[in-house]
Design goal:
5 strands, five-stranded parallel β-sheet
Length: 278
């Protein structure tokens, strides 16, 4: 079954699918013995809505179609959820996931996503570059005369980098209204809470000052997610969606915990997490 067949706007079905994708991401991280469950789980609802809510114009049977919408996971370490989505959508098989983070993976399922994997647009080994690349794609799409959009999921840690804000200025200058940035604002970084590293607040005001079309939502409320994704594009401004999320969402002992940024669960924790994600 491909992504178009799976597409639904039913919120209950999308919530159910997001849980399934979390379980799948957890499984491959557990099997690999490494990965990033915290940031994968915080982004799961957003990515579910994009890929399976009829938002993203994409076709797994033709992943390079010039008319496609582009999706960039700038916070590329959340590859566990990305590969789970790609498998469910039909870009790769569920069996391919067994090679996650393994040397000589046939589908190149590395820790950070790579464009050799069907459905992946860019490599994301160095954080902070996704918005710049996304803006370049948005400009190119307009030059080619297509109506496609570019969606970029950013981590709140990586938006502390200057390149993000250079891209934000450029997108405003060129009126790239087909660029949609989504901040997975889970407020927990690799080794500390984001606020203690560099306080991003007032985050909406910052994006407003760069002349973006700014929206803030609960990034785990499927109704709010779908409503903001379904909004028509702004006539001139690029859009940013600040999605308040919870790192490790769905597993009580992972939620909001720095320790679960980049570590695989033990057998005991894996079994506990699966029960909570049922």
């Amino acid at each position: 079954m491909n992504a178009n067949q799976l597409a639904t706007t039913d919120r209950a079905e999308l919530k159910k699918l997001a849980l399934e994708l979390r379980r799948l991401a957890l499984k491959i991280i557990f099997q690999a013995g490494s990965g990033h469950p915290g940031g994968s789980f915080s982004a799961a609802d957003l990515m579910t809505a994009l890929f399976f809510g009829g938002i993203l114009n994409h076709d797994p049977s033709n992943p390079k179609a010039p008319t496609r919408d582009r999706f960039l996971l700038s916070k590329g370490h959340a590859s566990g959820i990305y590969y789970a989505v790609l498998a469910k959508a039909g870009y790769i098989s569920v069996a391919d996931l067994d090679s996650y983070r393994k040397i000589n993976s046939e589908r190149f399922l590395s820790g950070h996503a790579h464009p050799k994997t069907p459905g992946v647009e860019i490599a994301s080994g160095s954080l902070g570059q996704g918005l710049s690349v996304g803006h370049g794609m948005a400009l190119g799409i307009k030059l080619d005369g297509y109506d496609a959009k570019v969606y970029v999921i950013l981590g709140d840690g990586e938006i502390q980098e200057g390149q993000i804000w250079e891209a934000a200025m450029s997108a405003d200058k060129f009126k790239s209204n087909n660029l949609i940035a989504i901040v997975d604002y889970n407020k927990v970084a690799q080794d500390s809470v984001t606020k203690e590293l560099k306080d991003l607040e007032p985050l909406e005001d910052k994006w407003n000052s760069f002349n973006w079309d700014v929206h803030r939502i609960d990034g785990h409320d499927m109704d709010a997610i779908m409503k903001v994704f379904q909004l028509p594009l702004h006539p001139e401004k690029p859009r940013v969606i600040v999605a308040d999320t919870i790192k490790g969402k769905g597993v009580s002992f992972m939620e909001g915990e720095t320790a679960w940024h980049g570590v695989a669960p033990s057998v005991e924790d894996y079994e506990k997490a699966l029960k909570e994600l049922a």
